[in-house]
Structure formats: C-alpha cells, structure tokens
Amino acid sequence: MARSSIEPLVVEKVIGDVLDMFTPAANFTVHYASKQVANGCEIKPSAAVDRPSVQILRPRVSTCFYTLVMVDPDAPSPSEPTSREWLHWIVVDIPEGSDATKGKELVPYMGPRPPTGIHRYIFVLFKQKHAMMVGCGAPDARGNFSTRQFAAQFELGPPVAAVYFNSQKEPTAKKR
C-alpha cells in the first residue's frame, strides 16, 4: 500500500473522524462478490448484504495476527452523525496471509443500511501485538463505538491499512 493511498482517507476525513494519521504497513483487499472496494467507490446496500471477502496479502510465513474493524462514521446521517461510529463488524485473530474467515468473528457482520445521505463505510486493519486477543469481548452496543478506543484498549497500536466505500439508500420501487 503506497503512501498515496492515505490521501483519499485524509481528503474524505476518514483520518480525523475515525483514525489518526498512520503509515500503511500491510496490504489487504475487500471484495463484495466481484467488486473490489477502493477508496471512495460506490457500493449499493443491496450488493453488500453478505459479508465481504477480506484477504490479507502477505505470505503465510510468520505468526502475525490481525484485527479487522468495519464502521460507519456517518450514522444516522452525515450532517448529524449522533451515533458516530456505528459498528458493522469485528474479526480478530486473522492469521497473516489468510482471509477473515480464518479469524474469530467478535461482532457479526451487518451490511450497510444508510437511512439518509451518503455514508462512508470504513475497513480498518490492525496488526495484533499478541497472537490471540485474550479477554477481548464484543462491545455492549454498535452505536457510538470508537475505533480509536478499541485499538487503545486492546493495545493494537495504529492501523496498518484502511479502505472505505460510499453507500446511500437505494430508491424504492413506487407502487401504482
């Protein structure tokens, strides 16, 4: 992940609203079916109902483990994000070079459900300092989650990678 990959995160205030500045140190991909998530791309809620495929792109030679967090900082609306951040998914203990299914799902996946406006959905990858996230339980609620506090509480350090997509409520078919 090149240094320039940070720029869209800064421009769209992912760094600021959710994360502090960090230096990318890992590569990972997120796919909803055949669509790869790239910073700022648009994905319809109907295309993101099922959890995505998340692959950490490293050779499986070490005993490193990763934690993946997915949040929406724009809940319930971008103009009034009173539930910032809304937690959508947490997976811990993902082995390096594997996909998220090899980790432990701490918080089950919840697809995007933006009620109004364009929402950012952010995937954040942390390299764990310990092989297993001992004592790590699910948060009490999905609303008002803090990625920063979660990382501090479990000594994750700064993120090693992040990517986000945009989504908005799909129009409903009008009945005649």
Could you characterize what this model shows?
The model has no long low-confidence stretch (mean pLDDT 91). By secondary structure, this protein is mainly β. 33% of the residues are buried. The strands form two sheets. The chain has a six-stranded mixed beta sheet with strand order 3-9-8-5-6-7, with no helix packed on it. The chain has a three-stranded antiparallel beta sheet with strand order 2-1-4, with no helix packed on it.
Question: Count the helices. How many?
Answer: 3
Largest sheet: 6 strands, mixed
Order of helices and strands: HHEEEEEEEEHE
Identify the overall geometry: globular
List how many beta strands DSSP finds: 9
Share in helix: under 10%
Q: Name the average pLDDT.
A: 91
Radius of gyration: 16 Å
Strand coverage percent: 25-35%
Q: In what order do the strands lie side by side in the largest sheet?
A: 3-9-8-5-6-7
End-to-end CA span: 50 Å
Which consecutive residue ranges, at least 5 long each, have pLDDT under 50? none
Estimated structural class: mainly beta
